[in-house]
């Protein structure tokens, strides 16, 4: 069963789930355990090096991923760089979601407010 591991701080949209199933052949979505999700979503900005900090996440991947699995990796730029390189070194595929942004400006109480909507387009391989 091909899985998509979510190194991602958001909830997948229905469009992303459908695209992952259709284009990537995903059968199961794997969210991180709460402790690892907290680690991924809250990378301390004062750290100058992330390898040790991300070690628990790497160990989890090493113990749970199987041949053919895919990793959706989005978040802190340095964390993404570290984890993309890590999963690729193990022979896995890493992807990120691309979106189309639709911006609308409205006058609200005499002030211009901008509203942005993001729509999933596809998954791009790193």
Shape: globular
Indicate the structural class. Answer: alpha/beta
DSSP strand content: 25-35%
Measured distance between first and last alpha carbons: 22 Å
User: Order of strands side by side in the largest beta sheet?
Assistant: 2-1-3-4-5
The tally of beta strands, per DSSP, is 5
The largest sheet is: 5 strands, mixed
Provide a descriptive summary of the structure in words.
With 126 residues, this protein is of the alpha/beta class. It has one domain. Helices cover 33% and strands 35% of the residues. Strands 2-1-3-4-5 form a 5-stranded mixed sheet. The longest helix is centred in the middle third of the chain and has 13 residues. It is globular, with a radius of gyration of 17 Å.
Tags for this entry?
126 residues; 5-stranded mixed beta sheet; 5 strands; 4 helices
Tell me briefly what this model is.
This protein is α/β, with parallel strands linked by helices. Helix content is 33%, strand content 35%. The chain has one domain (3-125).
Topology of this structure?
Blueprint: E1 3-7, H1 14-24, E2 28-31, H2 34-41, H3 55-64, E3 70-73, H4 77-89, E4 93-108, E5 111-125
Parallel strand pairs: 1-2, 1-3, 3-4
Antiparallel strand pairs: 4-5
